[in-house]
Specification:
13 helices; alpha+beta; Beta-Lactamase; 4 domains
Length: about 575
C-alpha cells in the first residue's frame, strides 16, 4: 500500500515534519534572502521581493501541501484495500460456515432422500446459485432454488455441472458466468455430497445386516445352521474369507462349534487356539496377524476376534479371518461387535430351546411309558391270561376256548391300532423342507389312511406365516387330529386352512363330542398338549383359539394366527 511502503513517510510523520521543520526553515530562508536582497543595487530590491514572495513562497507551500495530500491518498487507498479484504474474508467466512452447516446436515440426514434435499439446499446457499439439482445412481434426485422468482432454470442462466465421485452429478445455475472460485467450491461440495451419500449407504447396509442377523436369530433353532447364517452375514459385511465360533461347554472350556474357510466347513469339538483364549479374556475385539492368525485359520494372515458375553458371563468367541494382512484395520468393528452381541443372544436362545426340547422329550418318554404301562401293556397282559385260559380249555370246552380266542384277537387288534396311532402322531415332520401347506396335505392324507376314516382338506387364500407360527399351527392340527383318532369315534373329519388378514385353521369331526369344561386339561398322546396348552401357545403369538363341542354333536377346533 502506497503510504506504508518501506522508506516512505506515513501521513502522521509528514504532518509532523511540516509542522516542526517548515516554520523555522521559512524564517531562516526569509532571513537569508532578505540579507542577499539587501546587497543588491538600488532598484532591484522590488523585483527580488516579487520574485521570491510571488513564486518561491507559493511553490513551497504547494509542494508541502501536496506532500501531505499524497500521504492522505495513500492512507485512503490502504483503507479501501482493508475494507475490500475484510469483505472478502467475511464472504469467505460465511461460505465456510455454510459448508460446515452443510456437512453437519449431511451427517444428520436420516435417509438418501434427506441427503439429496439437504445437499441441494446447501449448494444454493453456499454458491449463491439460483437453482441446484442433484442426482445419484438409482434414479434419486433432489433440487432447490434460491432467491429467485423463476420456478425452474431458464436459458438466460449460466449452468455449471460437476460430477459426484461414485456416480451422479451436481447441476448449478447462476445469473452470471460462474467464476473459477465457484467451480472449485462446487467441486468441493460434490466431494462432500459423495461422502454423505456413502455414509447413508453404509448406515442402510448396517441396518440391513442387523435385520438379517435378527431374522436368523428368530427363524433358526439348529445351532450350526444358526452360527453359519450369522457368521456368513458378518463375513460378507467386511469381505472376510473365513469364520469360526468357539463356544463354552458345560465345563467352561472353549471348543470349536462351527468353522468355515476356503476348504469348507470344519469338524467341531476342537480346543480353542491361544488367540481365542486371549480374546475370551479381553474386554473388546482384538486383531492379530502372522503366526497367531495361522493358528486360527491355516491360510489367514489377519484375524479379528470378538468376545461373546452377556449378563451370565462368557458364551464364546467369534472369529473372522482373511488372507490379506491388516484386512480388519478399517473394518466396522463396532458394528461387528453389535452383531456378535446378537449372536450371543441367539446362542443363549438356541441352547435354551435345545434344553426345553430335551425336557419335553424326557417328559414325553415318561408319558408314553405310563400310557404303555396303563394301556397297551395291561391289555396285552390281559390277552395273555385269556390265551392261558384257552390253552386249558381247548380240549375240555372247545367252544368257550374259541370265544376267548376271538376276544383276545379283538383286543390285540385294538392295541395294534393304538400303537400305530401313537407312532403316527410321534413321527417327525419336516416343516422346513416341505413348507406348511404341503406338510398339512401329506399329514391329513396319511391320517385318514392310518385311522380308516374320511379326511378332507380345503386350502384357500394366501398363507404367509413366520416359521415359529407355522410350527404352532401344525402342532394344533396334529393335536386336534390325534384327539379325533383317540377319543371322537368319528367317521369323517374336515380340515380347513384359509388365508386372508389372518390365517384360520378349522378341524371339525362328526364324532361323539364332549363337554369342553370337563376336559380342558386333558393331555393327548401326540405330544402332551391339552386344550389349555394349545390355547396358551396360540394366544402367546397374538392368535385366537376356541373349541366348540357338545356330547353327541361332534367337535370344532378353530385357531387364528396373524399373517407375517
Amino acid at each position: 500500500m502506497g503510504g506504508d511502503l518501506p522508506g516512505a513517510f506515513r501521513l502522521s510523520d509528514r504532518v509532523k515534519v511540516v509542522r516542526n521543520v517548515l516554520p523555522p526553515l521559512i524564517v531562516l530562508v526569509v532571513g537569508a534572502v532578505e540579507f542577499l536582497i539587501s546587497l543588491l543595487p538600488a532598484g532591484q530590491e522590488l523585483w527580488a521581493h516579487l520574485l521570491f514572495y510571488g513564486l518561491v513562497g507559493p511553490a513551497v507551500t504547494y509542494f508541502s501541501v501536496e506532500w501531505i495530500a499524497e500521504g492522505t491518498r495513500a492512507r485512503e487507498r490502504a483503507e479501501r484495500e482493508l475494507r475490500d479484504l475484510y469483505g472478502q474474508l467475511r464472504a469467505s467466512h460465511a461460505q465456510l460456515g455454510a459448508v460446515q452447516a452443510l456437512m453437519r446436515d449431511l451427517t444428520d440426514a436420516a435417509d438418501m432422500n434427506a441427503v439429496l434435499d439437504v445437499a441441494a439446499r446447501g449448494a444454493v446457499r453456499v454458491t449463491g446459485a439460483t437453482h441446484a439439482t442433484l442426482t445419484v445412481p438409482g434414479g434419486l434426485s433432489g433440487s432447490a432454488r434460491g432467491e429467485t422468482l423463476l420456478s425452474s432454470p431458464s436459458a438466460a442462466l449460466y449452468p455449471l455441472r460437476v460430477s459426484i465421485p461414485g456416480g451422479g452429478a451436481l447441476a448449478l445455475h447462476f445469473d452470471a458466468p460462474p467464476s473459477p472460485e465457484s467451480e472449485s467450491l462446487a467441486q468441493a461440495l460434490a466431494a462432500e455430497v459423495a461422502r454423505g451419500v456413502e455414509a447413508v449407504r453404509q448406515r442402510t447396509l448396517d441396518l440391513m445386516t442387523l435385520y438379517s442377523v435378527d431374522q436368523s436369530i428368530r427363524a433358526e433353532r439348529n445351532m450350526r445352521r444358526l452360527l453359519s447364517r450369522v457368521t456368513r452375514t458378518m463375513a460378507d459385511r467386511v469381505g472376510a474369507e473365513a469364520r469360526a465360533v468357539f463356544l463354552t461347554d458345560q465345563d467352561s472350556v472353549l471348543r470349536l462349534e462351527y468353522a468355515q474357510d476356503r476348504q469348507g466347513e470344519a469338524r467341531g469339538g476342537g480346543v480353542a487356539p491361544p488367540f481365542a483364549l486371549r480374546v475370551a479374556q479381553a474386554d473388546g475385539p482384538l486383531i492379530t496377524t502372522a503366526d497367531d492368525a495361522g493358528e486360527v485359520f491355516p491360510d489367514a494372515r489377519s484375524v479379528l476376534g470378538i468376545p461373546m458375553r452377556d449378563d451370565e458371563g462368557l458364551v464364546g468367541v467369534l472369529m473372522l479371518g482373511d488372507a490379506r494382512p491388516n484386512a480388519f484395520d478399517d473394518a466396522r468393528v463396532s458394528l461387528l461387535a453389535l452383531m456378535a452381541g446378537q449372536a450371543t443372544l441367539a446362542v443363549r436362545n438356541a441352547r435354551a430351546y435345545l434344553y426345553s426340547e430335551e425336557l419335553a422329550i424326557s417328559d414325553e418318554r415318561a408319558r408314553i411309558a405310563r400310557e404303555i404301562h396303563d394301556g397297551v401293556a395291561q391289555s396285552l397282559a390281559f390277552a395273555a391270561l385269556k390265551l392261558d385260559v384257552v390253552a386249558r380249555q381247548v380240549h375240555s370246552d372247545p367252544a368257550r376256548a374259541e370265544s376267548e380266542v376271538r376276544a383276545a384277537t379283538t383286543l390285540l387288534r385294538e392295541q395294534i391300532r393304538e400303537v400305530r396311532r401313537s407312532i403316527f402322531a410321534l413321527r417327525p415332520i419336516d416343516l422346513e423342507r416341505y413348507g406348511l401347506l404341503e406338510t398339512v396335505r401329506r399329514y391329513v392324507l396319511d391320517f385318514g389312511e392310518q385311522n380308516s376314516l374320511r379326511a378332507t382338506l380345503d386350502i384357500s387364500g394366501d398363507v404367509h406365516l413366520s416359521p415359529g407360527d407355522e410350527a404352532v399351527v401344525f402342532r394344533i392340527l396334529q393335536e386336534s387330529l390325534n384327539n379325533v383318532a383317540k377319543h371322537a369315534r368319528a367317521q369323517e373329519v374336515r380340515v380347513t386352512l384359509r388365508g386372508g388378514e389372518r390365517v384360520t385353521l378349522r378341524v371339525q369331526d362328526d364324532g361323539a363330542g364332549f363337554d369342553p369344561e370337563q376336559v380342558t386339561g386333558r393331555v393327548s398322546s401326540a405330544g402332551g398338549l391339552g386344550l389349555l396348552q394349545m390355547r396358551e401357545r396360540v394366544e402367546a403369538r397374538g392368535g385366537l383359539y376356541r373349541v366348540l363341542s357338545s356330547p353327541g354333536h361332534g367337535t370344532l377346533i378353530e385357531a387364528e394366527m396373524p399373517q407375517a
